[in-house]
Amino acid sequence: MKKLFIFMLTALITFTSVYQLPVFANTNSTDISTKYTYYDDGSYMLEYIIDESNSGITRSSSTTTKSKIASYYSSSNVELWYVKVTGTFTYDGTSSKCTNSSVSATSYDKNWQISNRSANKSGSSATAKATGKLYQNGIVRKTINKSVTLTCSAKGTFS
Description:
Layout: H1 2-18, E1 34-38, E2 44-51, E3 56-57, E4 62-73, E5 79-91, E6 96-107, E7 112-122, E8 125-136, E9 139-151
Keywords: Signal
Protein name: Ig-like domain-containing protein
Signal peptide: 1-25
């Protein structure tokens, strides 16, 4: 029995060290929702929402800042680049409004370049856009135009 336990523990440690999965630091499971978009070559885009501030809650309304991040990963689970929209929202149970929005986008891989960064707000939504281009030998091999929209409901639910 002891040998079986040691074998299973060794297998678990080996599995977790060989297969690197995306990890989200400083997040609470209630603050995160994820969406995956897969591409033909096995790469994928992972979208998730994080809380950027402590909500300022009053009796009748709330103000909070959240971000929605779209991270592009290779087929071997290496993060290559991301685009992030950050929005500040007010909501009171009957309506919501985005009061500010910003964009950030960064490449972690020298072959990927990010351009066309923009952010805007409209009603209860904040949107950021960016273009990721894969260059090989000076030639663009792949282009991904990504738009990320963060929306707040009247009751403060984010999507």
